[in-house]
């Protein structure tokens, strides 16, 4: 078997434009690709009948952040909590956590101010416009 390497982290969103604005403008990630996919092979591959989706890939260093919006999405739900089984989050590293936190637009929902944990990592969490958790950290 070939060895696996990380390619992307995917987040399904209901408002692709708003999500791109957040990750591009508030967090400074560059858009590297935008495309749409549909058809039988895609629908079969994702296990959703008649699926069609729009994608935006953003450069997050060694991995891409993939934002995807399906033409027909499920009901929205309250934002996830980090301690709930099955909840995911995106971790983005920066050199200066405090400067990043201080530079966030007022519209960004913050979960916590920068904190240095017992491991020596400085972190803070925000929510994207869909309620997904994003951890900003300096290892």
TrEMBL record:
State if Phosphoprotein is listed as a keyword. no
What processes in GO biological process is this protein linked to? L-methylmalonyl-CoA metabolic process
Segments crossing the lipid bilayer: none
Under Gene Ontology molecular function, one entry of this record is: dioxygenase activity
**Gene3D superfamilies for this protein:** 2,3-Dihydroxybiphenyl 1,2-Dioxygenase, domain 1
Where do the coiled-coil regions begin and end? none
The stretch of residues making up the signal peptide is none
Which superkingdom?
Archaea
PROSITE patterns linked: GLYOXALASE_I_1 (PS00934), VOC (PS51819)
Classification via Pfam families: Glyoxalase (PF00903)
Task: Cite the InterPro entries for this sequence.
Answer: Glyas_Bleomycin-R_OHBP_Dase, Glyas_Fos-R_dOase_dom, Glyoxalase_1_CS, MMCE/EMCE_epimerase, VOC_core
| PANTHER family, sorted | METHYLMALONYL-COA EPIMERASE (PTHR43048), METHYLMALONYL-COA EPIMERASE, MITOCHONDRIAL (PTHR43048:SF3)
**UniProt-recorded name of the protein:** Catechol 2,3-dioxygenase
């Amino acid at each position: 078997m070939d060895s696996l390497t990380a390619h992307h982290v995917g987040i399904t969103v209901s408002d692709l434009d708003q999500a791109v604005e957040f990750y591009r403008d508030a967090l400074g990630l560059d858009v590297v690709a935008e495309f749409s996919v549909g058809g039988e092979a895609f629908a079969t591959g994702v296990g959703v009948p008649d699926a069609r989706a729009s994608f935006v890939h953003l450069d997050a260093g060694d991995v891409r952040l993939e934002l995807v919006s399906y033409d027909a999405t499920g009901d929205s739900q309250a934002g996830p909590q980090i301690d709930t089984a099955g909840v995911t989050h995106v971790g983005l590293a920066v050199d200066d956590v405090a400067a990043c936190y201080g530079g966030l637009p007022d519209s960004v929902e913050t979960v916590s101010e920068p904190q240095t944990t017992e491991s020596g990592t400085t972190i803070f969490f925000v929510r994207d416009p869909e309620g997904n958790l994003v951890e900003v950290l300096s290892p």
